[in-house]
Amino acid sequence: MASVKEYIRERFFPHIWCPGCGHGTVLKSLITAVDQLGLSKNDIVMVSGIGCSSRIAGYVDFHTLHTLHGRALAFATGVKLSKPQLRVMVPMGDGDALAIGGNHFIHAARRNIAMTAIVMNNRIYGMTGGQFSPLSGYGKAATTAPYGNIDHDFDVVQLAKAAGASFVARTTTYHAPQMVEILKQAFTHKGFAVVEILTQCPTYFGRKNKMGEAPDMLEWFKENTTPIGSQAKQKNPSLIERGVFVAEEKAEYCTEYEKVVERAMKGRE
Amino acid sequence: MNPKIHFLQGNEACVEAALYAGVQFYAGYPITPSTEIAEHMAYRLPQKGGKFIQMEDEIASICAIIGASLTGHKVMTATSGPGFSLMQEGLGYAIMAEIPCVIVNVQRGGPSTGLPTGPSQGDIYQARWGTHGDHAIIALTASNHQDIFEITVQAFNMAETYRTPVILLFDEVIGHMRERLIMPEEGEIPVVDRLRTSVKAGVDYHPYLPREDGRLPMSDFGGEHRYNVTGLFHDMWGFPSDNPAVVHGLLRHLVDKIRNNVQAITRYKEYHLEDAQTILISYGCSARSALHVVQNRRARGERLGLLELQSLWPFPYSLVEEKCAEARHIVVVEMNMGQVVRAVKRAVYNPERVVLANRIDGSFITPTDIKNILRLIQGKGV
What's the mean per-residue pLDDT of chain A? Predict the structure, then answer.
């Protein structure tokens, strides 16, 4: 592949992520996927929200829009619909995408507007210092759950499917080659694509929940996930499945709007 | 029948004006009394090859138009009270990232859900200070359909000229009322197009380095220049920065680009001010009743005049001071507990001369309401 440096803004490095953070792995895999697909940097708009995850937009040499907490998909919808030839990638954190941005998430999925939502799920609010998110899970520790978290979590895959996303996948930072393959499929999918990436936050989620250092957390991803429909899953239902859950053809919003324009213009004559 | 003459709602006049100004993208959410803007846009925009989208809420609506503005399009959204509250977050973003966009607030009674179908002009200060942090803003208004048309085009022009969100503060009365609109010819009202950078591909483009005149030429997303846009304080590349010099410079720029152009932004109309002893100051629907009173009293030889403000923010302090210098009494006519009257008191030499004629019960303010205040001033009792 071309040098990673082709795709990053070196001027803005070093990045702000903590040592051991999984977000750098997402950045590298994303760049690899873009490079392998041979996409033009001028055709890519990356729209992010607020949080550790959102800073990824500043580091890549695409058109980049660092927006408001939770609102990335709403901004991205305006970008995509106004210029459908652009390829829109929307990396978000778990709190960003599913707490404050939950409503935008389900409606973007329902509309099936062609863009890739990447949920960088580290199960914690990192930038504000370790509060529980809607993906932390019952019983987990966080600074706003000092006596244990009683909030139940979402299953991002189930939520995205139910909301109508036409491509849904999950992987982890341990499985970087799989992440590249899934992102390539997602970027070329003609519809709303959701990719959940389990990524480690050793600084907060790991420390609070006694999960060890970054390598230990990566090891946890390896031990606790399994390919979709594997025998291991049948034996141990608590394993988290990885892979592509949904990849279907469905009327895409921008394409449908072109038909609306045609009908409107005919009506005038 | 002259095809240039239309009989329509103020909300529809606003849409036609936006199309005249070149709007290409609209995102919105239904809310009374602004809904007809969304309905008419949904019908009219695709006829012109533009895009309309109904979003999941007003937060998403303003975010979507900001995204569409960055790809090089003229954009608009419209809402009313509660929706305008939800838009404050995105409004601040558009101010900070300097995104041209037009936001219409067809005012209704508030606070909260308030009076969905009743008129009010209670959002004047929300337009000024509704979003958090220091900033400047442009807010325009109008009192009849011909002026709605003209001022809406001006809103788009100012959004492009100053790279800022512009708020159109209409109200339920003019939004829903039907009256005549004579459609201006193409070219009759000047239309300002987006200023784009002349920096060639491959040359370092500084999206946030103002020219000497304070203007910032843009580059469309999808074009040759790839840069970062953020709501954080940012340097000339659009990259986040907390360097005190950068922060200071950017905030000054954001405020000064509006403040230094108050004269150019100021819009108003005047009626019989030349020898007026009593001046009514009004705007939006209230100005209709105020004008009626002025014309009525002038016919009787009373020295009454009207200053109708069409730009509320930045507030035209010098204009008000100058026009009111010789007046014995100044009556601010508005449909709230006293909002523009505060700014008028700050503007004039002798604030004791300024009184308020208002109505806050969801009924349209009448000439009688204004005449009652005039009788008090003139010592005639109620």
Answer: 97
Specify if A72 maps to a domain.
yes
B52 and B154, same domain (yes or no): yes
Q: Mark the ranges of chain B whose per-residue pLDDT is less than 70.
A: 1, 381-382
Q: Is residue B166 part of a domain?
A: yes
Look at residue B198 and tell me if it is in a domain: no
Helix (H, G, I), strand (E, B) or coil at B14: helix
- Stated as kind and residue range, the H or E segment containing A219 is helix A214-224
pLDDT band at A4 (very low <50, low <70, confident <90, very high): very high
Burial class of residue B149, CB neighbours in 10 A (0-12, 13-18, 19+): buried
Claim to verify: residue B24 and residue B137 sit in the same structural domain: yes
Q: How many domains does chain B have?
A: 2
Q: Is residue A122 part of a domain?
A: yes
The reply to whether residue A83 touches residue B224, judged by beta carbons under 8 angstroms, is: no
CATH of the domain at A196: 3.40.50.970
Most B CBs within 10 Å, among A13, A52, A63, A253, to test the B interface: A63
Q: Which residues contact B336 (CB under 8 A, 6 or more apart)?
A: B120, B121, B122, B124, B358, B360
Last residue within a domain, chosen from B162, B182, B202: B182
| C-alpha span between B83 and B114 (Å, rounded) | 12
A194: in domain:
yes
The CA distance from B85 to B91, in Å, is: 10
Average pLDDT rounded to a whole number, residues A186-195: 98
- The answer to whether position B225 is within a domain reads no
User: In whole angstroms, what is the distance from residue A107 CA to residue A82 CA?
Assistant: 18
B78 within 8 A of B104, measured Cβ to Cβ: yes
Find the domain containing A18 and state its range. Answer: 9-268
Cα–Cα dist A246/A260, whole Å? 28
Q: Which residues of A touch B (CB under 8 A)?
A: 9, 11-12, 41-43, 45, 47, 57-58, 61-68, 71, 74-83, 85-86, 103-104, 107, 257, 260-261, 263-265, 267-268
User: Residue B11 is which amino acid?
Assistant: N
ipTM attached to this prediction: 0.97
* Contact between residue B21 and residue B152 where contact means Cβ atoms under 8 Å apart: yes
Give the pLDDT confidence of A240-267 residue by residue, as tens digits: 999 999 999 999 999 999 999 999 999 7
At A71-102, the pLDDT tens digits run 999 999 999 999 999 999 999 999 999 999 99
State which of B164, B182, B200 marks the end of a domain.
B182
Confidence of residue A2 (pLDDT cuts 50, 70, 90): confident
